[in-house]
Amino acid sequence: MVATASDAARGCDGVRARTVIALTAALTVVACATPAERIIARLEAAGVPGTQARCMGNRLAARLTLAQMSELNRVVKSNDGEKLTIGRLARRLGDSDPALVAKLVETGLGCAF
């Protein structure tokens, strides 16, 4: 039996479909990251050491409201490239949410040791 051009095209469509499905599944897993995983990733990207970032991410995810997580995310994302410390992060949050600053400092200190 001789393969035709249309057979080859159908074969490519099958490969494309499998590729699209695989990429969609991978993106779904990333999009389903837990709040703790998102906080950890942001803190690590901002220069917080991995062990401390993991400790803080897990604790902050349990303690922060959605609005506080959003504010923390906004401040961490706006980092200008300098390594973020807990003190710098607290100063950047300023007076916007004293409860958030308190939770951040408390968690940072608890995870530093």
Features:
single chain; 113 residues; mainly alpha; 2 domains; 6 helices; 76% helix; elongated
How would you explain this protein's 3D organization?
- With 113 residues, the chain is an all-alpha fold.
- It is 76% helix and 0% strand.
- The protein is built from six helices and no strands.
- The chain starts with a helix and ends with a helix.
- The model has no long low-confidence stretch (mean pLDDT 79).
Q: Could you write a compact summary of the structure shown?
A:
The longest helix has 27 residues, at 5-31. The chain is 76% helix and 0% strand.
Tell me the major beta sheet: none
Q: Helical amount among residues, as a percent range?
A: over 70%
**Fraction of residues in β-strands:** under 5%
Shape: elongated
**What's the count of strands?**
0
Total discrete domains: 2
Question: Between the first and last Cα atoms, what is the distance in angstroms?
Answer: 71 Å
Mean pLDDT: 79
Q: What order do the helices and strands follow? A: HHHHHH
What structural class is derived from the secondary structure elements? Answer: mainly alpha
* Unreliable residue stretches: none
Radius of gyration: 22 Å
Question: How many individual helices?
Answer: 6
Task: Please write out the topology.
Elements: H1 5-31, H2 35-45, H3 50-63, H4 66-77, H5 86-93, H6 98-111
Helix pairs in contact: 2-3, 2-4, 3-6, 5-6
